[in-house]
UniProtKB/TrEMBL annotation:
This is ABC transporter ABCA1 lipid exporter family. Its main location: membrane. Belongs to the ABC transporter superfamily. ABCA family. It holds the Pfam family ABC_tran. InterPro entries: AAA+_ATPase (IPR003593), ABC2_TM (IPR013525), ABC_transporter-like_ATP-bd (IPR003439), ABC_transporter-like_CS (IPR017871), ABCA (IPR026082), P-loop_NTPase (IPR027417). It is a multi-pass membrane protein. Keywords: ATP-binding, Membrane, Nucleotide-binding, Repeat, Transmembrane, Transmembrane helix, Transport. One of its GO terms (cellular component) is membrane. It is found in: Membrane. One of its GO terms (molecular function) is ATP hydrolysis activity. The chain crosses the membrane at residues 123-144, 164-193, 199-219, 231-248. Residues 388-621 form the ABC transporter domain. It comes from Phytophthora palmivora.
Length: 730
């Protein structure tokens, strides 16, 4: 007898109950609880059994096992009277369907299943994670490569704010991800997510794409190598997926929500929830965003995607400013808590008498005669703040085994309307100095000022007036010559017709008219240098740095570039580095020679030649069999007592003659012509001392270990030669 029959019988029977003994005899108090037996009733009850599903199933199994093929009615008719009575007794209990009562199952929700989602549920999220790995790697490569190729620093130097650069990348990829999410939503509408709201699916994938973008930006701030950064970023992104697999159906909802700070975790749980909604035939829509499904809500995924965007962007902006990198300056780790960072700094105002002025007067004149004293007009520039004034600038680097000093407390002033040439051997500190002056490296101590702005405090404002041509071309490969100038022209504030005229003028000036619409990657090395020079001189750049601008150019292009620089130096402070001494001699209004991080001398080309014993070089070709070296030397010294022997190697002997001795040249040459045979000379020639010789003397005097020069020359009298090259230093 079933439980349902017992309960029904108890309710309808109402057996008698003795309250004192708390027992019952089982006799019904209602006679109608049991139907009286009759042949007609028994036939009807037995016929009702023919529709019983359980009996039908049992009879079917019995027929299969025995091979008999009997119907339910045949089976019931063959039962004995005792067996029939056992079946009929519980059936006679009220209520009966034919007596006016009925029995129905309690309503429950219908259960549906999807073989497709059941089969792929284990790899559904993984498929989408793998599909986004490529997008993640591309974003990482572009972000990091921009730093690796110095393009970001280049744009910042030319006046583009860092926040503008990052915002433009965000806008670019937001547009790409927007159309990608639209495509995913439309494809899902006719396939995977047929029952879901297309807007909900679009929001889900669009917000996930944005979180991937922000995550990639954060990772890009840690690395400076595109290959390494993209590889590590993809691995970290992929491993985040397995965090989601560590949760079970019993995991608390809050724990899952916290783990969704990792975008792949939120994607995994979100896709699982959408799949469950699709299986039930309802689909994901705005009505069930907050419906709890296996301890997760689809709305939580959308909210966490937005939180991820904010979190990773802020983290990336912080790391971008504090992590040391090869190019660019960094801030202290606590800069967000510094009031001065948010308040900004007051712009300094140049005074009528700057410390640099007095410093220059004292050092240049009294202590260091190797620095040429400037005119009153140039000193006035310093007082007005129009010159670039470097004050005790120092830069050190931590290297294995100690600290390397690259620039040692350098003092130097670079004037407007002039080209200041920086010379020095490799490792002298020229590039480090330019890196500090352009904000690509932070000085360890000291400062520099320009137009009342401090290098340490107002670098962003200084960069608004700055132009630079790097030693190695920093160009966008997929932009043409014209597009480069248009981009940076807009950065400088030019618009419309004025911009077009400026671009056309620059292209014509550097001789790239025929290459106007050619991509920079297709230009030759010399043409790339021309484009870099054109960008550095674009617009109103009043402070221009040119790091070996003519390297890689043919002689004709070099000469034309010299003309361009000379024609564009007005109203500009122009700083040039070069390894071509003739270039420095022609272009340099003032030439500064550095060695071992220090300024050794500074002045005009004529000043340097005079200061370092430069005058004329007399070279004589000997007949080795007949030449009398002592007689030749005595003849030269009889006319120019201060003549110095430079070298006596092989068949050549060379003397250096001071500039003031030029009046004695005519009689000396006449006497020499008359005694050529006697002295054993074949020929002779005289030339003015070049800047290259000055440079070599400065380098040799400083380079006691001969790390950068050709070494000792063969000299018969080393004492005499050494006396001629000693620098006058304090």
């Amino acid at each position: 007898m079933t439980l349902q029959t017992l309960v029904t019988r108890f309710v309808t029977c109402m057996p008698d109950w003795d309250a004192m003994t708390q027992t019952t005899t089982g006799e019904c108090q209602r006679s109608q609880a049991t139907v009286a037996p009759s042949d007609e009733l028994d036939d009807r009850l037995l016929q009702s059994l023919e529709n019983d599903a359980m009996l039908k199933a049992a009879l079917s199994e019995f027929a299969t096992a025995t091979g008999a093929n009997a119907t339910m009615s045949d089976t019931l008719s063959q039962l004995s009277s005792t067996t029939k009575e056992a079946l009929l007794t519980p059936l006679r209990q009220a209520p009966q369907p034919y007596l006016g009562a009925s029995v129905a199952p309690f309503p429950i929700e219908a259960y549906t299943s999807s073989p497709f989602y059941d089969d792929i549920s284990g790899v559904f999220a993984l498929i989408f994670i793998l599909s986004y790995l490529y997008i993640t790697s591309r974003i990482l490569v572009i972000f990091i490569q921009e730093k690796e190729l110095r393009l970001r620093e280049y744009m910042k130097i030319l006046g583009v704010k860092e926040r503008v650069i990052i915002t433009t990348w965000y806008i670019t990829y937001t547009i790409i991800l927007f159309f990608g999410a639209v495509l995913e939503a439309l494809m899902g509408l006719v396939g995977l997510f047929a029952n879901s709201s297309v807007i909900v699916i679009f929001l889900f994938f669009f917000l996930f794409g944005l979180s991937v973008l922000c995550f990639a930006f954060f990772i890009s701030t840690i690395f400076s190598n595109a290959r390494t950064g993209s590889f590590v970023g993809m691995i970290v992104f992929f491993l985040m997926y397995f965090v989601a697999q560590a949760f079970t159906d019993d995991s608390p909802e809050d724990d899952i929500a916290q783990a969704c700070i990792m975008p792949p975790v939120a994607l995994s749980f979100g896709l699982s929830t959408i799949a469950d909604f699709e299986t039930s035939g309802i689909g994901a829509n705005f009505g069930n965003l907050n419906t709890l499904n296996v301890n997760f809500r689809l709305g939580t995924a959308l909210q966490m995607f937005l939180l991820d965007c904010v979190f990773y962007t802020l983290l990336g902006l912080y790391f971008e400013r504090v992590i040391p990198k090869e190019y660019g300056t960094t801030l202290k780790w606590y800069f967000p808590f510094s009031p001065s960072y948010w308040r900004g700094r007051k712009k300094s105002v140049p005074t009528s008498e700057t410390p640099t002025d007095s410093l220059l007067d004292n050092v240049a004149v009294d202590l260091n005669p190797n620095i040429e004293r400037v005119s009153a007009e140039l000193r006035e520039q310093e007082r007005r703040g129009e010159a670039l004034s470097v004050q005790r600038l120092r830069k050190t680097f931590e290297v294995p085994g100690g600290t390397k000093v690259a620039v040692k407390g350098l003092d130097l002033v670079m004037y407007k309307d002039q080209i200041t040439c920086l010379l020095g051997h490799n490792g002298a500190g020229k590039s480090t100095l330019i890196s500090m002056l352009t904000g690509m490296a932070a000085p360890s101590s000291g400062d520099a000022t320009y137009r009342g702005l401090s290098l340490n405090q107002d670098m962003e404002e200084i960069r608004e007036s700055l132009g630079i041509c790097f030693q190695h071309d920093v160009l966008f490969e997929d932009l043409t010559v014209e597009e480069h100038l248009l981009v940076f022209g807009r950065v400088k504030g030019y618009r419309n017709e004025e911009l077009q005229e400026l671009v056309a003028s620059q292209i014509r000036q550097v001789g790239l008219t025929e290459k106007r619409h050619v991509f920079s990657k297709d230009l030759s090395g010399g043409m790339k240098r021309k484009l870099s020079v054109a960008i550095s001189l674009l617009g109103d750049s009043s402070l221009v740095f040119l790091d070996e601008p003519t390297s890689g150019m043919d002689p004709y292009s070099r000469r034309s570039t010299w003309e361009i620089l000379l024609n564009n130096r007005n109203d500009r402070v122009m700083v040039l580095t070069t390894h071509f001494m003739d270039e420095a001699d022609i272009l340099g209004d003032r030439i500064a020679i550095m060695a071992e991080g220090e300024l050794r001398c500074c002045g005009s080309s004529l000043f340097l030649k005079n200061q370092f014993g430069a005058g004329y070089n007399l070279t004589l070709v000997k007949d080795d069999a007949k030449c009398d070296d002592k007689a030749v030397t005595n003849l030269i010294k009889s006319y120019v007592p201060s003549a110095e022997l430079l070298s006596n190697v092989g068949s050549e002997i060379a003397f250096q003659l001071p500039q003031k001795s030029s009046p004695m040249f005519a009689p000396m040459f006449t006497d020499m012509d008359n005694k050529m045979g006697t002295l054993g000379l074949l020929s002779y020639g005289i030339s003015a001392t070049t800047l290259e010789e000055v440079f070599i003397k400065v380098a040799e005097a400083d380079d006691v270990n001969h790390q950068h020069t050709l070494g000792h020359r063969a000299r018969p009298d080393s004492k005499e030669l050494d006396a001629g090259v000693v620098l006058q230093t304090s």
